[in-house]
Every structure is written in C-alpha cells, then in structure tokens.
Amino acid sequence: MTWFRWVLLALVAGLFGLFAYMLSQPKEEFVESAMIGEAIPAFDLPPIVPDRPGLSSADLADGQPKLLNVFASWCVPCAAEAPNLARLEASGANIVAVAIRDRPEDVAQFLEAYGNPFSRIGRDDISAVQLSLGSSGVPETFVIDGRGVIRYQHIGDIRDSDVSVLLAELREAGA
Amino acid sequence: MIAELGLAALWLAAALAGLQLLAGAVGMREGGAALAALVRPAAIVQALLCAIAFGALLLVFARTDLSVALVAKNSHSAKPFIFKLAGAWGNHEGSMLLWVSVMALAGGLIAFLERRLPERTMIATLAAQAFVGLGFYAFLLISSNPFERLPEPAAEGMGLNPLLQDLGLAFHPPTLYFGYVGLSVAFSFAVGALLTRQVTPEFAKVMRPWILGAWIFLTLGITAGSYWAYYELGWGGWWFWDPVENASLMPWLAATALLHSASVLASRDALRAWTIMLGVVAFSMSMIGTFLVRSGILTSVHAFAVDPERGTFILVLLALYIGGALLLFALRASTIAEGERFSVLSREGALVVNNVALSAILGIVLLGTLYPLLTEAFGVRVSVGPPYFNPVGAIFFLPMLVVLAVGPLLRWRRDSFQRITAPVVAIAVVALAVLAGVYFFAGIGLLPLLGMTLAAAVAVASVLPLRGRSLRRLPLPVWGMVIAHFGVAVALFGMAADSAFTRERLVAARVGDTAEVGPWAITLAAVDPVAGPNWTALEARLLASYDGGAVTELAPQARSFWTPPMETSESALRTRWNGQLYTVVGGEAEGGRWQLRLWWKPFVTWIWYGGVLIALGGFLALIGRLSGDLRRRSAQAQIALRRGTALA
Amino acid sequence: MSWRLLLALLMALAAPAAAQDLLPPAPYAYRQIEDPALEAKAQALMETLRCLKCQSQSIADSDAPMAGDMRHQVRTRIAAGEDPEAVRAWLVERYGDYVSYKPAVSATTWPLFAIPLLLLLAVGLILRRRLGRAR
Predict the structure, then answer these.
(1) Chain A residue with Cα closest to B277
(2) How do residues A47-94 score in pLDDT, each as one tens digit?
(3) Nearest Cβ partner of A103 from C22, C72, C95?
(4) Bond prior to B162 in cis (omega within 30° of 0)
(5) B588 bridge partner residues
(6) Under CATH, domain C23-103 is a member of which superfamily?
(7) Over the Cα atoms of chain A, what is R_g?
(8) Between A96 and which of A120, B82, B93, B544 could a Cys-Cys bridge form, CB atoms 3.0 to 4.6 Å apart?
(9) A103 contacts C95? CB cut-off 8 A
(10) Residue B335 burial (CB count, 10 A)
(11) Which domain holds residue B7?
(12) Higher confidence at residue B592 or residue A52?
C-alpha cells in the first residue's frame, strides 16, 4: 500500500494549494441575490411618507426601467450614498425605494436631512419584500427593467465610481 | 521594562531553539557527541525562558500597562482582575505566545525526564521539536509581537469582549492549547522514531503518557467549550459543526485513534505504521486548526481578527512541517518492519477497526469543513452544516460503537467467538430492549433512536470487562478504560435524549402569566432592572414548579455592556436528575409583555458529565501508567544497587 | 420610583449601541405555531437555514432582526401548509445554496457525497486486507 502514502502527500499538497489560493482572494463579504435575471415577485407595499405613493410590483413592470433602492433611516451608509442617488436622479434615473423596518417619522426626518430622490417609497416592516428579492442588507440597489425583471444588483452604498456603472446598467435594461 | 524583558527572553528562547536544532541535527551523526550533549540542556533552558516571557505578558496585563499595544487593545482598567489575566491569552498574539510556551515546556519536560529511549532517538525528537518551535517563534517575533509598545501610552484600554468575561470561557483556550500543543510531542516523537528507524514498543510506551496528557486536556477543553456555548449563547445549542468547533474536534479524533494505536504498539508490537501516521496527523490537525482560525478564510463566530498576512505565514509553516513529516513518512515507512500478526477476532483487530473508523470520521469532518472553501475557489458558495455532518458521521460512528462494545471483551492476538457469546448476547438483549422501548413509547427520529440504543449497549459493555476480576487489585489503566468508555455511553445518551425529547416554548408573557413547558409550569413574577460592574440588565424573576411540586426561582437577564457596547442574554438554568430547565428573557413586546424563551431539555447535562468521565478515565489511565513506570524504575534501581553491592 | 429612572437610563444607554431598527420583531419571529407538529417541522427547518447577517449561526439561534423576519416567513408558510422543503427551495431561489446548511446533491456538491462512499469502500478494503490476511 505504499502508493497510498504518495496519494496522501499529493492530496495534502493540493489542500495547501487551495489554502494559498484562497488567502490571495479578497474575502467575500456580501451574499448576492440569486434572483438576478428573474422577474420580481408580486408585492404591494403601503406608503410610508405622505408625499410619496407606496410601491407595488406592478409599478415596476410599467415599461420603464428603474432603480430600486433598499434603504433604512437607521442605516449609516444610506446617508452616505444620498448625494450619489441625487446625481442618479438628476441624470434621469427613476428611483423607487423600499424602506426596511422603519418608522414614518424617522423616514421623513432622513429624507429631510439627506434629500428625497425617490418617486415612490414602499413600507416594509418585516423585511418581507427584502427577503423576496434576495437582498440581505441595506443599502442595496437593483436595476429593474421595464418588464419587471431584475437585471443587476449593487450591494453596499453607491460610491462615486458606481454612478456611471449603474447608469450604464439602466441604459442596457432599457434597450 | 517588563515587556522588554519578556521580549528579550523570547528572543533568547528562539535562539536556543535554533541551537537545539543545530546541535541535534549534527549530534545525530557520528562523532557529534559533544554537540549532542547540548540538546537536553538547551531544551530545558528554552522552557524556562518561555516561562519568563509568558510571565512577563501576564504581568503587563495584570497591571494594565497601557503602554503595551496588546494591553491597550484588549484590556480595560475596570475589568475584574481574573479577566485582566485571561485577557493575556484572549487575543491572537498572546495565544501564540501561549502556544510556543507550552511547546517549549513540553520539550523541556521530555529533555528533563525521558531516559528510556536510545539517546539518538531522543536527540532526533528534541531536534524535531525545536524545528517546529522555530517556525512559531519566527511567526511571533516577526509578525505578531505581543510586547510591542505604543508610541504613547493609551488613555484607556479598548476593553475585552464581554462575551469573554466568563470564567468558563477564560480557561477554555489554555486547556485546549495544552491539548493541541501537547500533541506536538507525539509529532516530534514520531519524526524522531522515523529518522532513527526506532519504531518499537518501548517508543510507544514513552510516547503514551504524553498523548494521554494532551488528549485529556483536549477532551476537557472541548467539553467546556460546548457547555459554555450552551449556557451563554441563549438558545440551548451545544454543537453546530462550526468550522472552529471542527478545528478542535479533528485533533481530538486523531489523538483518540493515536492513543489506542500506541497502546497496541506498546503491548503487542503491532500497528507500527498506523501509530507513526497518526502521530503526524494529530499535530497536523492542530496546526491546520490554528491556520483556519487565524487566517480568516472561513466564516465563523469564533474566528480571531482576520489577517491574510498571518494566514500566509502559518500556511508556509504548515507546508514545511506537515509536508516534511509526510514526505519523511512516505520515504521511510516501507522500512518500518511489519509488526506481530493477529487474527480478525482479537483486540488488535477491534482496535484496527477503531483506528480506521476514527480516521474515516476525521476525513469526513475535514471534507465537510473545507468543502465550502473549495467551491468558493470556483465562485460558488455553499454551506455545510449539521444536516450533513450528523447522518454522514453516523454512518461510521454507529458501527464503530458496536465494535467498541465488543472490543474490550476480546483477548489479544486471537480469540474465539464461543468465549464471548454470553456477554455479546447480554449486550444485544439490552440494546434491543431499549430500542423497542424507546421506539414504541416515544416515537422519535432514527438517529436519536439508534444513539440511545447504542448508548445503552456501550454502557453495559463497558463494565463487562470488570466481570470476574478482583476490583481492588484491578490495574488503574483498566479502570480508566472502563470509565472512559462508560463516559462515551453517557455523553451519547445525553446527545440523543436532548435531540429527541427537548421541549421549547416561546411566549410573550405579562407579569403574572404562567406558561408550561414539558412538566414545568413557569410564572413570570417580575421584571426588574439591575446593574453590575460594567453592565446593566433587565432581570426577570421566574417561579418554576416541576409537575406541581415545590416552587423554585430563576433569574435570567438581558444584559447590556458599555465597553464595548454589546447585548448578551444570561440564561438561568435549573438542573434535575432527569434534565435541565433553560430560561431566557428577551426584549419587551407590545402590550407590556416580555419575551420568554423556555426549554425543558431531558438529560442534556449527561453530555458534559460524559465528557468529564471520558477525561477522568484518561486521567486514571495516565496515573496508572506513570506509577507503573515509577515502580519499574525504582525496582530496576534496586536491582542495580544490589548488583553493585554484590560485586563490591 | 428610582427603578423607573434606572430603566429609562438603561433604555437610553441601549439606543446608541444599536445601529439597528426600532421596529418590533415580526409577529412570528418569537411566537410558535399553535399546532405543535407544524412548529416542530418549522423548528427543524429553521435550524438548517443560515442567518445571513451573522457570522455562522442558524436563524433558529440568532437574535438579529433579519433572522427574526426569516423565521416569520418560515413559520407563516408552514402554518399555511407548505412543505418545509418547498420553503427551503424558496429561500435558496433567493439567496443561493449558501443560505441552506443542508447541501443538495448537485454538479458542485457531488464530491461531498461521493467521497464518504469512497471512504466506506476504502474502509472495507483496508479492513479486509489487514484482518483477512493474518490468520
């Protein structure tokens, strides 16, 4: 059974190779949604602030590609990405939002402080829509095409460099 | 000053390790006697220097010397004293210093005490120990210096994690480390024996107490860790097949197999290759575990701060030591002569099954733990948890238990089935009775059912070797075996019972409400705020009554710490002979109600009683072997003395 | 009543510690299904689903709000009569295999199941050679 010892040595060498490779890779922080390419599931969320209507899946299948921003007033990076969301809106993007586990007064205060680039905001008190989209945290931004199919997911706050990427994805979704 | 003293001691210890290696390597050859004579003293002084270094670390933590970076990062002046000390090893650098200190200590002890093996083998062993030590010294001194100073002393420490402010958890790492690093002795012995081609029963006898010692610590460390997780994390779970838990289990599996294999080699001169192989594998598992925990490549609640640079360093050490040892084994193994023959139905045969089964389980745990890493390399993320490990492990574990039941009854070398028919039938009857009873009266899942059945079988089987023997004159190692195997049965029964019979009740209760869980009726009497040294909490007063009996009070808390800010839940437990009541208070729910989580867990404490019994059995065996060795040595000394006087 | 003051102080201290929401947990996050058989099925399933915001815990063992929301989904679906494996499939459809601790047999995971079988064969072979040989 001497060959067995060499096989073992080879297996161990392979294992260390795997370790070395994985050490060189950046750590995967986020869980990506598996719903990319799928149609958004049906939902109907009530409004959370008086001056914006609620959000339903039908609104996302009205022919116009949109950005869907999953946010919360208690989420610090959401405040950080507000200027870039404003830039996206200014560039012509239609941004709708889902507010996760939020109180109306807190959302109103947040929008007052950081601006309101959203055309619609849905109220998701128990993260039901967040779960159905495969989103695992805030903030996240999805690109949804005119037929209601999820085309792209951006996890984390939108940095300056991400603005052009999202605009390009939005354009592609509209094509 | 003290920190610098510690650092200097550490450098000196590393230098001595280098000397030990050099002297050993050269001293093994012909004419190297002068250098060879340096090896033992080098090992002993190395141990002393490491003791000084670790003592220095303890001292700076005891004094909360905030000019030392490690203290500033991990301690706080308001911490209770015992936890200040525990903070010394509750971080990466400090625990690595503990690692090398225990290695040096083990090496020093061997150098001081062991005289039974040929000197050349001892030199080779100590050289191997020094070789491994050097790598870890380098790691410490180059990339993880525990004595680094801050340019300016910090105003206050950043506080120890509140979860670590617990006696059980404070002492869990050192216990495990004595186990992991104790296995380095077996590794060095295995390498030394391979290098000098001295795989003999004498070698196994010398190695055995060291394996036993390390294994006892590992058993206790894992048991303690499991119990800590159970009562601290607030959900009643005691094992999750989490990568870091597995990292502690794998060396234990290898060490258990090694223990039994070395016993066979010691008494029957068989299983030579297996023993050497397992000696290498056991410490390799310790090192792989250290790598997994500190490199950050696996996600786990237990992992230390992630640092791929550290991971790379350790990986290089792994490749060097494990690769080197396995290569040596592959090259030299064919020169290890075949040991004594034995038949299938013999104790050796049963122990071969034991070795093979434990190794297979080790392979499965390793596979399941590392598989997500492999798929991640290809861009796919999967999770492997209890639904995989429990059934797949059981495929090998359950048959192994059957052999465990019968094995100790078998004679060495060759036995006949007729001789053991009576006890085997007795065991089988008990097993079937339990199986039928539980199946018909309880209706539970297959795995817990098999678990309880085999637990009963092993419990009966483990005491059968006592049959027909004088209990007062029974050698301690036999008592050790009986108690350890009985402990396995007890622990297994606890695991199966908990998994089958646990009752859970989640309720949002108002003060004055009563809830029921299992045979208990629990009333929420009050919820009051309380304060501690560095926390505030909401404490619920629960009045619990078992089956309408006397009322007993429990006080679970929802605690908030402030440095660093963290919320924990302190469960309140009430233990009976037949199980444990586990209560937790959560947050406030609407309508002035409070979240209560209540569990009735029949026989769950048997899991840890079993673990302690297993360690106790090992301890008795160790005492028995050591006192036997001492008696033999003094008898030999007597004989030598008498011969000397006779000649004079 | 000084204990009220202490309580208020406690609440005030707790708030900055939480970069979390202020809403209560989902209805079935901490509430069991009335039918004990269904609750047992739900519990068994929850113990095998990963909490995505935690380091390595099941949703049955976590106090994170998202874990509570996932428990709510599991319990409401099972109470409505869905099969546990269908609920698992629903979550896997959203988050991939990562969310389930029970690996499914697939093109990427077949070695996980093939290797134990191979080990079983190897064990049998080793034992036959080692024990069958010497007599």
Answers:
(1) A5
(2) 999 999 999 999 999 999 999 999 999 999 999 999 999 999 999 999
(3) C22
(4) no
(5) B594
(6) Cytochrome C biogenesis protein (1.10.8.640)
(7) 21
(8) A120
(9) no
(10) 9
(11) 1-164
(12) A52
